[in-house]
Amino acid sequence: MKVGIDLGTTHCSVAVHDRSTGKTDIIPNGFGKDMTPSVICFLDDGEILIGEDAKDMQAGGAGVIAASFKRSMGDTDFSVEAFGQTYGAERLSSMLLEKLIGDAEERLGGSIGSAVITVPAYFNDFQRKATIRAGEACGIDVLKIINEPTAAAISYGYNRAADKTVMVYDLGGGTFDVTLVKVESGNISVLGTDGNHILGGKDWDSVISKHVCDLFEDEFGVDPREDESAKNELIVAAENYKKVLSKADNVAIQLRYEGNTGKYTLTRDEFEIKTQHLLDATRDVIAELMEGLGIGWEEIDEVLLVGGSSRMPQVAKFLRRMTGKDNVVEHSDTDLAVAKGAAIVAELYASDKTGLTDRKVVDVTAHSLGALTVSIDGKRYINEIMIKKNSKLPAKTRKPFGIGPGNLTDRIEVFTLQGESRDPLECHVLAKMVITGFCNVGSGTTIDIEYTYDENGVVKVNAYQDGEQLEAAAEVLPEDISWMGGSPQDRPSDAVIVKNIAVCVDLSRSMTSCLDDVKGQISDFVNSVADENTNISLIGFGDKVKVVRELTSDPDVIITALDDLKVNMCGRGTDGSPLATAHSVLSSKPGAKMMLVLTDGIWGKRDKAVSESLACRGDGVDIMAIGFAEADLSFLRQIATVEEGAMYTALDRLGDAFSTIATAINTGATGLRQGK
User: Fold this and answer.
1) What would the 3-class secondary structure string for 611-639 be?
2) Phi-psi region of 656 (alpha: psi -120 to 50; beta: other; left: phi over 0)
3) Helix 606-618 vs helix 579-586: crossing angle, to nearest 10
4) pLDDT band at residue 581, thresholds of 50, 70 and 90?
5) What's the domain range around 586?
6) pLDDT bucket at 672, cuts 50 / 70 / 90
7) Is residue 676 a part of any domain in this protein?
8) Residue/partner pairs of 266-270 with CB below 8 Å, 24 or more apart
9) Which three-class secondary structure string do you get for 359-385?
10) Nearest in space to 160 (alpha carbons), one of 120, 187, 181, 124
11) Is pTM beyond 0.90 here?
12) DSSP 8-state code for residue 308
């Protein structure tokens, strides 16, 4: 038997769909009620109460209460301590699901083998996977995870023939989602979704609790919120006061604590004023969604209210003011639409999990999915977006990433990020995958990284080289990820980076007055990049080209050779391009290859130099050209192979130019970079 389960923050429901009659029914719980409170109570005698009984105990301030734990799904730091036992949100959800399924099986008189479970549209990968695991821990087959607004839209539009664009405004007990859907002959196409998974009816309850406790503390000098039992009683009472204010103009509130009794009155107008900021928060989410999709209010036919908290009169009034139209519709099953939509999907879902058999439902991603990469300039980590937010599910993309020349690593780390920001620390870091089994001889290689969002919005990562799938194993995320906000060169790496650098110095007559200063700057540069894995060659050029020193890892050899450089030692002009000679020198050793060309004059055989530059580019040799005095900037841009390479500078700023290059070289091929 297949069912749909609305695993809500405050209440849950289970529904079943009869394909032959087209009817969808809620399965009552053991108390004969359509909804089961999402509350668990632990008693000191070891008994555990779930649902209605637990809610009664919460109202009476007894036992250890676990409630609203859905908000913490996927959060490993959340736990409830009860009589020596620790319960995380995933385990609590599994206990609740087991109760829901047990009650439903007793009512139906049969076994439930599979289910579709709903989640807030804005749940991330952690939360979705935790929900799937909670369901599987109960022994059921989780056919699919479906977004709550999408489920409500299915329930609303399943038997409708009219074509409409509908905004589903889903304000539940603990979460808020807004989703735009196209309903066409019972088929549902989600255009986009957004939300806030920590905004819901509980926040309206908290406003009432705060209002009453503030008045009580002012009157009697004590705060009931400091006592856990009194606090739990007030949480239950505040929810009831909120429901009264949805039907009446005011509510009488009585609060007893430590022998004191406070009597207060809260009007609906006061309540709406105090909670306006919460509605404004939903407006901001709506505005961002509509702006992102490029959709205006004139294109939306109906606003469908879903979720028990949407029953508050202020919600419909607020939306009518915002839309400027009387097109706000209450779902006939405001509280139960999500479970019914899930039941329809469960019954129509193919046994092989390939999709719906006679209805089309196209959902979208709620978050962008990206990979941690190094920026082009090598100075920072960035979130490289792979799959954009609101892409249709399932979604898959593959992009090439390069391991630079000289990096002899046999493994790469892929950190998967979920979020919209380019700043990794503003995103959720979902996973760390280690890719191995690829060929890397140190001359540079490309790995294709493939990201997939499946139908459940769950993330998968694969890697390929030359079409062959590579080993991809998940590793535990490091506790400290603060390094993602720093520079790649600050993060220790086990990779051996071999760098080969040819420094090409113009020794024509125009260098007469400044050669000594240039030598000093080159000396500082050599010292700044020198290490055991960095080889440097010194080349002079004029009419001819001369290799002053071959590649060496000893910086003293290069610095000593600088003293041998003299104006005109290679001829009086600049007809001799050093690029081909430097290319030949660099090719003698494996690793990253770079040449620095320092010139202050106008070259003669430019076409030859440009042709040699193209040959270097084809062999993975980076060229940085630094010019000053009479140097031709446009020509330097032609021979430079990297954007940072063509730098024009006055002689007195030559040191700054070298400093920038040193950073780029040291930051070089030390990690995963997006390929070109």
Assistant:
1) HHHHHHHHCCEEEEEEECCCCCHHHHHHH
2) alpha
3) 20
4) very high
5) 499-671
6) very low
7) no
8) 266/208, 266/211, 266/212, 266/241, 268/313
9) CCEECECCCCEEEEEECCCCCCEEEEE
10) 187
11) no
12) G
The answer to whether residues 590 and 565 belong to one domain is yes
**What domain count does the chain have?**
3
- Tell whether 87 and 108 lie within a shared domain: yes
State how far the alpha carbon of 563 is from the alpha carbons of 111, 320, 549, in Å.
Answer: 89, 81, 12
If you count them, how many residues does the chain have? 676
| Residue 12 amino acid letter | C
Closest by Cα among 186, 90, 171 to 134: 90
pLDDT at 314 over 80: yes
Question: Does 419 share its domain with 546?
Answer: no
pLDDT tens digits, one per residue of 336-373: 999 999 999 998 875 445 555 556 788 899 899 998 88
Q: Could you tell me whether strands 164-171 and 302-306 are parallel, antiparallel, or unpaired per DSSP bridges?
A: parallel
**pLDDT at position 676, please?**
37
Based on the fold, state whether residues 102 and 34 are members of the same structural domain.
Answer: yes
Helical residues (DSSP H) of 170-253, grouped into ranges: 201-220, 228-245
Can you give the CATH number for the domain in which 556 is found? 3.40.50.410
Q: Are 302 and 166 in contact (CB under 8 A)?
A: yes
How far apart CA 217 and CA 219 sit, in angstroms, is: 5
- Which residue type is seen at 434? V
Does 173 have pLDDT greater than 60? yes
**Residue 221 placed within a domain:** no
For the chain, what is the total number of helices (H) and then of strands (E)?
16, 35
Q: Is residue 257 part of a domain?
A: no
